[in-house]
């Protein structure tokens, strides 16, 4: 047998123990590293899951646009058809029978007040006037004789040369002569007026817009139209405003008058008279508009469009039509509370103005109104809100948004079952 030294055995045992101890520490370190790595991985996974959940919630949260209602008087523009007429128009008739012997003005001529337009020839009236004047001379002679006789008999009565009865007879003859003289004078005056009626003159300054007779035409008093005269330096328009807009028309209000033939120009008129009542047949209110026409550019009888700007006395809120929710129930509007939660409020509608609607009750001017709400929007739903401001584009008439990255708001109502 081989003898082993005790020191070698002791050294070998010591090395084995040291090796086992080192392996144990290495194992513990490896396990610690694995545990730390596992915990770190779990922490990162939990953080990623939380971030993913947060992003998912943000993605699922709805975004909406809102607007504010606009207070103030409601302005409504309407266009009504009308016809231009002269400020004064008259159809001239004859007041005397006869034949038209001459006319001095014709279609389109401008005349002044009192200017001679035509002459009527009536020889029988001239002869009748001459006879009446001769009769007047006779009556004047008889009246003068009766007056002289009565004066003489007054003197004779003072001398008691005649009776009182004779004097009263002379006084009666004088009174009769005075009455006959007055009748003769009235007859002459009437015939002289008929003589003047044979001269057709302009009752006011204006333009002759039609002539209906020619030389030699037999004219009967009150039957034949001779001329039509219109004052064209000022025009007037008679307009009938429907009942729904009648209360917004005021005297002194300015209006715009447009002609299809003159597209690039609008004429300004003024409401001069407003009827105090509605026509019970048409349920409309008559309005008269005064339109200056110093250059004569506008022609009486022309068809025009009258633009009226009507201001309502009702104090209401004006909102875009896109905020309305129309369904089986009463109209409503989706609003946002302070926590950006959705609330549905029933409203009472006023007049529909197309792009805007009048709201009489249900909301206030401080409420945030969701425009174009989705059909899936629910009450108490929390949303992301962004304000937009709708403005009218003067050139294209389209709404503009305050934020460039937001789509233009629609102005049509929404349906919700």
Mean pLDDT: 81
* Strand-residue proportion: 35-45%
Give the end-to-end Cα distance, rounded to a whole number of Å: 107 Å
What is the CATH topology descriptor of the largest domain? Answer: OB fold (Dihydrolipoamide Acetyltransferase, E2P)
Q: List unreliable stretches of 5+ residues.
A: 393-412
SS-based class: alpha+beta
> How many structurally independent domains?
3
State the CATH class of the largest domain. Mainly Beta
Instruction: State the assembly state of the protein chains.
Output: single chain
Counted by DSSP, the helix tally is 4
Overall shape: it is rod-shaped
> How many strands?
25
Major sheet attributes: 7 strands, mixed
Estimated radius of gyration: 52 Å
Description:
This protein is of the alpha+beta class and 417 residues long. The chain folds into three domains: 64-71 and 315-416, conserved putative lor/sdh protein from methanococcus maripaludis s2 fold; 79-86 and 233-313, Efflux pump adaptor protein, beta barrel domain (Elongation Factor Tu (Ef-tu), domain 3, Beta Barrel), CATH 2.40.30; 90-227, OB fold (Dihydrolipoamide Acetyltransferase, E2P), CATH 2.40.50. The chain is built from four helices and 25 strands. The chain has helices at 6-60, 123-158, 164-197, 243-246, and strands spanning 63-68, 70-86, 89-93, 98-103, 110-111, 116-121, 199-201, 206-211, 218-219, 225-230, 234-242, 254-259, 262-279, 284-292, 303-320, 324-327, 332-336, 342-346, 348-352, 356-361, 368-370, 384-387, 391-392, 399-400, 414-416. The strands form five sheets. Strands 1, 16, 17, 18, 21, 22 and 25 form a seven-stranded mixed sheet that branches. α2 packs antiparallel against α3. The longest helix is centred in the first third of the chain and has 55 residues, at 6-60. The protein is rod-shaped and about 205 Å long. It starts with 5 loop residues before the first helix and ends with a strand. The model is unreliable at 393-412 (pLDDT under 50).
């Amino acid at each position: 047998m081989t003898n082993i030294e005790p020191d070698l055995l002791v050294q070998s045992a010591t090395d084995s123990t040291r090796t086992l101890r080192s392996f144990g520490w290495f194992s513990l370190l490896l396990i610690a590293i694995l545990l730390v790595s596992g915990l770190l991985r779990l922490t990162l996974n939990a953080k990623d899951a939380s971030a993913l959940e947060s992003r998912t919630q943000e993605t699922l949260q709805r975004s909406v646009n809102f607007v504010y209602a606009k207070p103030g008087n409601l302005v409504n523009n309407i266009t009504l058809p009308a016809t231009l007429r002269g400020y004064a128009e008259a159809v001239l008739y004859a007041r005397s029978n006869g034949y038209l012997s001459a006319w001095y003005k014709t279609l389109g001529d401008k005349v002044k007040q009192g200017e001679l337009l035509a002459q009527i020839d009536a020889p029988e009236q001239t002869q009748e006037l001459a006879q009446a004047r001769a009769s007047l001379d006779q009556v004047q002679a008889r009246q003068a004789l009766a007056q002289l006789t009565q004066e003489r008999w007054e003197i004779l009565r003072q001398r008691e040369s005649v009776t009182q009865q004779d004097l009263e007879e002379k006084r009666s003859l004088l009174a009769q002569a005075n009455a006959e003289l007055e009748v003769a004078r009235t007859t002459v005056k009437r015939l002289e007026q008929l003589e003047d009626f044979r001269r057709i003159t302009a009752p006011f300054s204006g333009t002759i817009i039609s002539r209906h007779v020619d030389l030699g035409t037999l004219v009967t008093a009150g039957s034949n139209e001779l001329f039509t005269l219109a004052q064209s330096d000022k025009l007037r328009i008679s307009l009938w405003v429907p009942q729904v807009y009648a209360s917004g028309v005021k005297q002194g209000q300015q209006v715009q008058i447009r002609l299809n033939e003159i597209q690039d120009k609008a004429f300004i008129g003024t409401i001069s008279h407003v009827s105090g009542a509605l026509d019970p047949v048409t349920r409309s209110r008559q309005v008269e508009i005064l339109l200056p026409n110093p250059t004569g550019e506008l022609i009486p009888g022309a068809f025009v469009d009258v633009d009226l700007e009507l201001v309502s006395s009702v104090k209401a809120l004006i909102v875009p039509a896109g905020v309305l929710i129309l369904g089986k129930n009463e109209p409503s509007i989706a609003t946002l509370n302070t926590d950006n939660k959705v609330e549905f409020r029933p409203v009472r509608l006023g007049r529909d103005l197309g792009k805007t609607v009048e709201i009489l009750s249900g909301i206030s001017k401080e409420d945030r109104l969701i425009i174009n709400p989705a059909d899936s929007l629910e009450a108490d739903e929390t949303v992301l809100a962004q304000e937009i401001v709708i403005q009218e584009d003067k050139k294209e008439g389209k709404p503009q948004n305050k934020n460039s990255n937001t789509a233009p708001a629609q102005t049509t109502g929404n349906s919700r079952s």
